[in-house]
Write a structure and sequence with these properties.
alpha/beta, TIM Barrel, 6-stranded parallel β-sheet, 3-stranded parallel β-sheet, 11 helices, 14% strand, hydrolase activity, Phosphotriesterase, metal-binding
């Protein structure tokens, strides 16, 4: 039976409820000094606000070495009633001190498999997905290394692979590597940040691979997120790809939390949901939030 691997154990897909398919409770990076998501009380309050808005589950994409605070996740899930999915994987090299990656050479896929099947460190929490990242319109050697390891871990476990697309670019290069060279089935790949570069031709070509297309995060000043996202989703639905879509909030810095004055996780349900409903109807939006995440992240675990 296919199940979604949460921090409290495996769930049937239909138990997720309304799902934020890409977000972060905790995150730390040298690229974001002083902006860390590292406050347990704030994370609890953010989850409670999401729950109050109708949310039921959050899929976290924070990978290895970026401050996941995995041991805190089960308690947060129990306290708020929100199901949490944790990630293994590796982000771009810029998010790590070079020496921290040296010990992973030759054993990256084994790390991913261990975190998916046995647990992360001493927390006992098992990851439910593998998160990797591409570059801006290209894949460097680090991206190819991490994606190759992710593909190996997928073959060993069945776990889905979620991909950070830098500024929404490089989707087809990622699919050429993961689904072409490395043989990962399209429906096991989730492409993130497509709202940041909503090229309609690229979106249709990516969807034709069978992968999942994630539109995540409210607009930043230099991104074409909110105002073009409904149009992009409608065009995909009209082209027959409405069943390949996911929505997420992608809160990456402390000031973006709703409890710290930002849009945060509730924004997905407070604003994005109604705006998208105007474009494609409540039925499809409900499926995107309540049905598609279960299909995207449920696995017949090996």
């Amino acid at each position: 039976m296919s199940t979604v691997r949460t921090v409290l154990g495996d769930l049937r897909p239909e138990e997720l409820g309304v799902c934020d398919a890409h977000d972060h409770l905790f995150l730390r990076s040298p690229q974001l000094p002083g902006l860390e998501l590292d406050d347990v009380s704030a994370a609890r309050a953010e989850l409670a606000a999401f729950r109050a808005a109708g949310g039921g589950s959050v899929v976290q994409w924070t990978p290895y070495g970026m401050g996941r605070r995995t041991a805190d996740l089960p308690g947060l899930s129990r306290a708020t009633g929100v199901h949490l999915v944790c990630a293994t994987g590796l982000h771009q090299a810029a998010h790590y001190a070079p020496e921290s990656l040296d010990g992973l050479r030759g054993g990256l896929s084994e790390l991913f498999v261990t975190e998916l099947t046995e647990g992360i460190g001493t927390s006992g929490v098992r990851a439910g997905l593998i998160k990797v990242a591409g570059g801006f319109h290209a894949l460097d050697a680090h991206a190819r290394w991490t994606m190759t390891a992710a593909a190996e871990a997928h073959r060993a476990t069945g776990a889905p692979i979620a991909v950070h697309l830098e500024l929404g670019t490089g989707a087809l290069d990622v699919l050429d590597l993961l689904c072409g060279e490395l043989g990962v089935p399209g429906h096991r790949v989730v492409l993130g940040h497509l709202n940041r570069s909503p090229d309609p031709v690229v979106l249709r070509e990516a969807a034709a691979s069978g992968c999942w297309l994630a539109f995540d995060g409210p607009s930043r000043a230099h991104h074409a997120t909110d105002w073009r996202m409904p149009e992009a989703v409608r065009a995909l639905a009209e082209a027959g790809y409405g069943d390949r879509l996911l929505l997420g909030g992608d809160t990456v810095v402390a000031g973006a939390r709703s409890v710290d004055g930002g849009p945060g996780m509730p924004y997905l349900l407070r604003r994005v949901r109604s705006r998208l409903t105007e474009a494609v109807g409540a039925g499809l939006v409900d499926r995107i939030l309540m049905e598609h995440p279960g299909r995207a992240f449920a696995v017949d675990w090996k």
